[in-house]
Amino acid sequence: MEIQIKIEVVELGERIKNLIKEKNLKIMNVAHDANLDSTNLRKYIRGTQDMRYTTLLRIASAIGVTPSQLLDGLQTKKEG
Hints:
Elements: H1 2-22, H2 27-33, H3 38-46, H4 53-63, H5 67-71
Helix pairs in contact: 1-3, 2-3, 2-4
Pfam family, one: HTH_26
GO molecular function, one term: DNA binding
Protein name: Helix-turn-helix transcriptional regulator
């Protein structure tokens, strides 16, 4: 299960990175608008740091998307 969560964290970071690129935004501006340090935003994008839900909300708002646009399809698969 831990590996699956790590994969999802990396996938979420990729989505954030791709949306920033698609919208021609700069990481520094997104970080500022999300009230984050750009170093931390880069860690989220690389998937090397977990984020709180409130951080996800701020990042989504700064990019101009809904949280569900970032999270859809990332549901943890339960081992069975």
